[in-house]
Amino acid sequence: MSASGGEAGLVGPGRGVIRRGVRGGCLSVVLAGAVVLLMAGVMKLADPAAFGSSLRSHGMLPASWATAAAWGVAALEVVAGVMGAWWVVVAGSLRSASLATCGVFLAFAVYAWAVALDPPAGAVSCGCGVRASPIEGSSGRWGLSAMNAGVACVLAVCGRGGGFGGRPAPARAVGV
Q1: pTM for the model
Q2: Using an 8 Å Cβ cutoff, are 135 and 144 in contact?
Q3: Contact between 127 and 118 (Cβ < 8 Å)
Q4: Distance between CA atoms of 139 and 121, rounded to whole angstroms?
Q5: pLDDT tens, 117-176?
Q6: Which residues, including other chains, have CB under 8 Å from residue 106's CB and lie 6 or more apart?
Q7: Residues β-bridged to residue 124
Q8: Where are the alpha helices (DSSP H) in the chain?
Q9: CA distance 56 to 52
Q10: CA angle 125, 73, 86 (to 5 degrees)
Q11: DSSP conformation letters of 46-57
């Protein structure tokens, strides 16, 4: 704490308002990430054959695994979305919700990166939603990976103590 009693950089009566504002923003971001995962999973469960076809067209796993992988990814998204929303709304655990949603988006970033490294011929759908547009060219494939990685980074930052500030500065003896 500084000589005035506040934390370094946040001195005065407004510091609590700033901290609550950052935490509220992070709660909203993590909840939005959970809802996106939940909705994407539900859309994939509505038509797992179409998502399996998308996975097959990526050429990243054996064709015989595509249907099982489609069900597994859809279930993972639904579970991560429900648990993330539950942790935010009911349990009040921003860190747990952030970890669950961040992990899924990070896995999608790595998968999209692998697809971009060894791209299939022609335009293929990412499989992100029921009517996902085909992604053409390397910039679209790398962009999908970058977008998922960016979302994962934002969720990770939000899970780190509820914002950019982290833990409060340790108390220091005055005059030492």
Answers
A1: 0.73
A2: yes
A3: no
A4: 14
A5: 887 777 777 777 655 666 665 566 677 788 888 888 888 888 875 444 444 444 455 554
A6: 148, 149, 152
A7: 135
A8: 15-46, 48-58, 66-86, 94-117, 137-159
A9: 6
A10: 120
A11: H-HHHHHHHHHH
Q: In which residue are the tokens 């999973």 written?
A: 41
58-99 pLDDT, tens digit per residue, is 888 898 999 999 999 999 999 999 999 998 888 878 888 888
Residue that the structure tokens 């990430």 belong to: 33
- Measured distance CA(22)–CA(164) in Å, rounded: 8
Report the alpha-carbon distance of residue 76 to residue 111 in Å, rounded. 15
Residue appearing with tokens 């950019």:
164
> Tell me, what amino acid is at 99?
L
The residue ranges of every structural domain in the chain are 15-159
Q: Answer whether 45's CB lies under 8 Å from 70's CB.
A: no
**CA pair distance 155, 157, nearest whole angstrom:** 5
